[in-house]
Write a structure and sequence with these properties.
single chain; mainly beta; five-stranded mixed barrel; 1 helix
Amino acid sequence: MLNSVVLAGNLGNDPDIHFNSEGESIASFNLAFRAGKKKTGWIKVTCFSRLSEICEKHLHKGAKIAVSGVLDHSQWETNEGVKRSAIQMIANNIEFIKTDGRGFAEGQAPGEETPF
């Protein structure tokens, strides 16, 4: 079964950066995308290693990006015994569509020479 997703949208928050027990950087953010003529959908996007470092340096709330990756479905039970589940996107590629230029070298415009 094929699991491949491509979405374009705007970041709802600056990327949240943290590290796993092996020291690998992880970035996560919420992406707003058009889910119909008048609907907005939201999905959590998670990036690892070098891609997470690029997110931390170049992305910000409101930036418009296109992201490709796979969907990941998690299930767990709360301490109160309530079953929960969530779907998130694990990114393997990000294209900058529009940013405010943060993290780019002086004179380098977003879109010129993608840093990855």
